[in-house]
Amino acid sequence: MTMNREKDINREDSRDKKDSAFIDHVVSLRRVTKVTKGGKRFSFAAFVISGDKQGKVGLGLGKSREVSMAIAKATNRARKRMIEVARRGSTIPYEALGKHGASTVVVRPASKGTGNIAGGAVRAIMSAAGVEDVLTKAVGSSNGINVAKATMNALAQLRSADRIALLRGKTVKELIKGS
Fold first, then answer.
1. With contact defined as beta carbons under 8 Å apart, do 83 and 156 qualify?
2. Contact, 64 vs 70, CB < 8 A?
3. How confident is the model at residue 171 (pLDDT cuts 50, 70, 90)?
4. Which of 17, 22, 84, 139 is geometrically suited to a Cys-Cys bond with 104, CB 3.0 to 4.6 A?
5. Does domain 2-80 sit in CATH 3.30.160.20?
6. For residue 164, which of 154, 175, 155 has the smallest C-alpha distance?
7. In the chain, where the domains are located
8. Residue 68 CB coordination number (10 Å)
């Protein structure tokens, strides 16, 4: 019996360590009202960005009758839908443009020490992904969810030099030479 308890405690410790590796940002929390025949029914919608500051980031939307359940659902979805972000030092390798709906986001690399020049959801995504020096501009719709999805589309387009070399069947030195 005591061995089972120890295993359970160890499992909980490892789960806590996994969870603590992630940084979660609640971007928006809205109260949603559904009007029914019997009156108004309130629920909550949470939009969460989760990342490990090591190049993995995801976003999720959760809805529930309670705030804590909505945030928990959104966090779980964000952690399940993570993408790998290519980085070069503390910035991104090159400029990228992402679109979603009427939102367009331009993401540009910046020199060391510039900081995270971004607003709202874009800033949360960059900090969760571990990108410290970046310039961004959101054009078009300013809807937070669409801007965040456009940012994720831009980051998904990025490839590291190692990845490009692997896809082309060359070494990184051959890519740089141009042969």
1. yes
2. yes
3. confident
4. 139
5. yes
6. 175
7. 2-80, 85-165
8. 10
Burial of 75 (0-12, 13-18, 19+ CB in 10 A): buried
**In angstroms, rounded to a whole number, what is the distance separating the alpha carbons of residues 128 and 47?**
14
What are the phi and psi torsion angles at 79 (to 5°)? -75, -25
Run of H or E residues at 124: helix 120-129
Report residue 19's pLDDT band, with 50, 70 and 90 as the boundaries: low
CA distance linking residue 59 with residue 28, whole number of Å: 12
Phi, psi of 53 (to 5 degrees): 60, 15
Q: How far apart are CA 65 and CA 108, in angstroms?
A: 39
Judged against a pLDDT cut of 60, whether residue 58 lies above it is answered with yes
Q: How far apart are CA 103 and CA 101, in angstroms?
A: 6
| Residue with the larger pLDDT of the pair 79 and 160 | 79
User: What's the CATH code, domain 85-165?
Assistant: 3.30.230.10
106-164: pLDDT as tens digits = 999 999 999 999 988 999 999 999 999 999 999 999 999 999 999 999 999 998 888 88
**CA 173 to chain CA centroid, nearest Å:** 31
For 28, the 3-state DSSP assignment is: strand
